[in-house]
Amino acid sequence: MSTHKSDDSTNSLHKIYTNDPILFKSYVNEKVTITTEDSNVHTGIVYTVDPVSESVVLMQPVEGEEKMKMKILMRPAIQNIECSFDTKVILPEMFVPPPNHYSQEELLRRKNSVMKLLIENRFPITEDKGVLCIEETVRIEPPYGPENCICLNSIVLNRIQTILNRVSK
Question: Which of 3, 54, 93, 105 is most buried, judged by most C-beta within 10 A?
Fold first, then answer.
């Protein structure tokens, strides 16, 4: 009886452990042409590649506009990817909060309104360089709206955001 064990461990590994993440990263911000199984050709700039599903998020410029549309191509549908690697295209950030156009006086008024409301609700407030803090658990950054709260506890975050919704905008 043989005790030799065959090395089939590489065959049983999930493909995330065997694919090439450096190759995926090299596609980001590059112009590509992707051919799908149904012979459609999609051209655009790669925003990202999901390392697990190997799906490609492709950004395509809209003709005559400065907008881009997003297309997600699932790996099973992709037959071929051709990358130009000649010039990197830097895509605009997609998930940037809108710029805040508040004057210093308006920010001060908003901060004071939020502080007053939180104190009325018995929250201990401290301020550190313009950021309001509640017991080192919640941080409220300018312009002091519900979307400007940072907290790891979702229950506390929800409670604070509900209170901040009462501040006039």
Answer: 54
Sign of CA dihedral 16, 17, 20, 25: positive
Domain residue spans in the chain?
21-88, 104-165
Tell me the helices (H) and strands (E) count for the chain, helix number first: 4, 9
Distance linking the first and last C-alpha atoms of the chain: 79
Q: What is the pTM of this model?
A: 0.54
pLDDT tens digits, one per residue of 100-137: 788 999 999 999 999 999 999 999 999 999 999 999 89
Please give the structure tokens belonging to residue 112. Answer: 């004071």
Give the CATH fold of the 21-88 domain. Answer: SH3 type barrels. (2.30.30)
The total number of residues shown for the chain amounts to 169
